[in-house]
Write a structure and sequence with these properties.
Elements lengths: L1 H30 L1 H15 L9 H22 L26 H17 L2 H30 L1 H9 L14
Length: 177
């Protein structure tokens, strides 16, 4: 009987940990990309005095960005056992899904969302904003994320980084051996 109770307690702890991680993932999505790819573009678009008629193709790009972003969030949560937030990063190196094509598909997806907003709204301010985002994302990746990943995952990161490009996707998905 004691063995059954111990197993139940371990399962309950595991469910509690998963629930906490799920809420952290949701909070991270709302707090970080929700602001960068949602709130700020919305405000800029509405303040843009140079705004002209947009193109419907922007909605396709925006939708592809949202799908890519959600796929990456799922892979961080399922394969990486973490979130996109700096306060709860993945415990494992994520090399599945879109991460087989580029090392930063989440950033690329966010840029697609903002580009889609800009094209759909015909906003010059969003075009300027996306250039700033590109620079900020690149600096964050090069100066913070890649050195941290190299320290955390060592040889595994080195092999992955050697085979998968930082920004421009590979034509064929990388298959870790």
């Amino acid at each position: 009987m004691l063995d059954i109770c111990e197993r139940y307690l371990v399962m309950a702890d595991d469910c509690g940990a998963r629930s906490t991680m799920l809420w952290r993932a949701i909070l991270a999505v709302l707090a970080l990309p929700g602001i960068v790819a949602g709130l700020i573009p919305y405000v800029l678009m509405n303040l843009d005095p140079w705004r002209r008629g947009g193109v419907e193709a922007g909605l396709i790009i925006l939708s592809a960005g949202v799908i890519g972003f959600l796929w990456c969030v799922r892979d961080f949560y399922v394969a990486g056992k973490g979130t996109l937030a700096p306060w709860a990063p993945p415990e494992r190196l994520v090399v599945k899904g879109l991460y087989r094509f580029t090392r930063n598909p989440m950033y690329v997806s966010v840029l697609m969302i903002v580009a889609g907003w800009g094209l759909a709204a015909g906003s010059l301010l969003l075009a300027v904003y996306i250039v700033g985002l590109c620079m900020a994302f690149h600096l964050r990746v090069v100066r913070y994320e890649e050195p941290r990943l190299a320290r955390q995952f060592g040889f595994q990161w080195k092999v992955y980084a050697a085979h998968v490009p930082r920004w421009m996707p590979r034509w064929k998905p990388w298959k870790p051996s």
